[in-house]
Specification:
Layout (H helix, E strand, L loop, with lengths): L16 H13 L5 E5 L6 H13 L21 H8 L5 E4 L17 H4 L2 H6 L8 E6 L6 H12 L5 E7 L7 H5 L2 E4 L6 H8 L5 H11 L3 H9 L2 H12 L7 H10 L5 H22 L12 H11 L2 H21 L3 H21 L1
Parallel strand pairs: 1-4, 1-5, 2-3, 3-4
């Protein structure tokens, strides 16, 4: 896999042309919102877009440009503004994100605290050092704790002149309504170009794996690349093979798959795949038809039909909810990952057994 650039370093973005045009139109009109809320699922390019918007604001602009505004926010990686932002050396630019929880900087805190956002107000109120705009990105704003959110709200209530705030949000409903109401909102959609981007960033992948990852990613290139790095396609196939034995799971397969959960991020990957597939199962069942269900691995449609015959969609939605709760608790209090994954898989087994007995 090629090195995938971080949003700070990435000059390339596809799929969000409408959002770029909305920002450029606002800029050209002279009625530029002081705060922008960039929303959408994880891994679709929200932060990359935020950096593009910030770099555009930081770049010099000729007020007498007879050719008008550009059609995109594209900027060369060799541009001085791009290089300063990338290196963290631009005097008018700041990024706020979760701080480090340890001295070695190996793990980030779970939230953005007030200490991280305290500098925003004074920074944005200063005269731009390089003659343009003061710009700040908060990535991600829905990870702020209540004190941090209130500090940001105070800034939005009295926004400084020539200052722009870009809020990236995976779950905007977690933000204070008063924060949402004071921002211009851009809702980004899942990408249709995941297949193309996988060929760009992971050209070594087999065609079958690209197809599977594209389906598993649900429009998120970030998720697709994470799954590719973690062997997600193989794990998904193993998961489907195990569930195919329901209503009585094969004990050897169950232990073998659960043993893998002890390594690295495999628990997160497996629990995420299981949760995702159960949500897919419940949704397909609620729609009343499995014929349109695209098979990621052979036999998946037959497995879905067997599980939905054993239990109705609302039962699988309840199992999905229990599994999600267990996954979050396992991460929060460091429960035994193998045991947690076995409990998740046994919850599926139990739902099938109870359904067949009813």
């Amino acid at each position: 896999m090629t090195d995938v650039p971080t949003p700070r370093d990435n000059p390339y973005l596809v799929g969000h042309e409408t959002a770029e045009k909305d920002y450029l139109a606002a800029w050209e009109s002279g009625r530029l919102a002081h705060a922008w809320l960039i929303c959408g699922p994880r891994g679709i390019g929200k932060a990359t877009l935020a950096y593009r918007m910030a770099r555009y604001a930081l770049a010099p602009h000729d007020q007498n440009d007879m050719f008008g505004a550009p059609a995109t926010l594209q900027m060369s990686a060799e541009d001085p503004v791009f290089r300063k932002v990338s290196s963290g050396g631009h005097g008018d630019f700041r990024v706020i994100e979760r701080g480090w929880s340890d001295a070695k900087q190996t793990k980030r805190k779970t939230v953005i605290g007030v200490d991280e956002v305290r500098e925003i107000g004074p920074f944005m109120s200063m005269t731009p050092a390089e003659g343009g705009w003061r710009t700040v990105i908060i990535d991600a704003a829905d990870e702020m704790n209540p004190n941090a959110a209130n500090a940001v709200l105070k800034i939005l209530e009295e926004p400084p002149a020539r200052a722009l705030l870009f809020l990236v949000a995976h779950n905007p409903d977690r933000l204070l309504p008063t924060i949402r109401s004071r921002c211009r909102r851009l809702d980004l959609r899942p990408l249709k170009q995941v297949n193309m981007l996988l060929h760009r960033y992971a050209p070594e992948l087999a065609a079958a794996d690209v197809t599977a990852l594209t389906a598993l990613a649900d429009g998120s290139i970030g998720r697709a690349l994470e799954l590719a790095e973690e062997g997600g396609v193989t794990l998904f196939r193993d998961l489907m093979a195990l569930l195919g034995d329901a209503p009585r799971l094969n004990i050897s397969k169950l232990h073998a798959l659960s043993d893998k959960a002890m390594k690295g991020d495999v628990f997160r990957t497996l629990s995420g795949l299981l949760s995702w597939w159960l949500a897919r199962l419940a949704a397909a069942g609620a729609r009343g038809g499995l014929d349109a269900l695209t098979e990621i691995t052979p036999g998946e449609r037959d497995l879905a039909r067997k599980l939905l015959t054993a239990a109705p969609p609302h039962t699988w939605a309840e199992v999905w909810d229990r599994i999600g709760h267990l996954a979050r608790r396992t991460d929060a209090v460091n429960l035994d990952k193998k045991r947690s994954l076995m409990l998740m898989l046994m919850a599926v087994e139990s739902a099938v057994q109870v359904g067949k007995a009813a």
